[in-house]
Specification:
The protein has helices at about 1-20, 20-50. It is mainly alpha-helical and about 55 residues long. Helix 1 packs antiparallel against helix 2.
Length: about 55
């Protein structure tokens, strides 16, 4: 998922350089959404791993 967010970020940067503002805005929005979903899933996995695999 992080890979897709980086791909959309690169597409947004390339589109912004060439002046395609609508495409750049859409790609940047998609990259932002995917990045935040990735961060939330990472934090949930980190918290879940801490509680599930706690050494006794």
């Amino acid at each position: 998922m992080l890979r897709w967010s980086l791909i959309f970020l690169v597409v947004a940067i390339i589109a912004a350089v060439f002046g395609f503002t609508g495409i750049a805005e859409s790609a940047a929005g998609i990259a932002k959404i995917l990045f935040f979903i990735f961060v939330v899933l990472f934090v949930l996995a980190l918290i879940g791993g801490t509680f599930l695999f706690k050494k006794k």
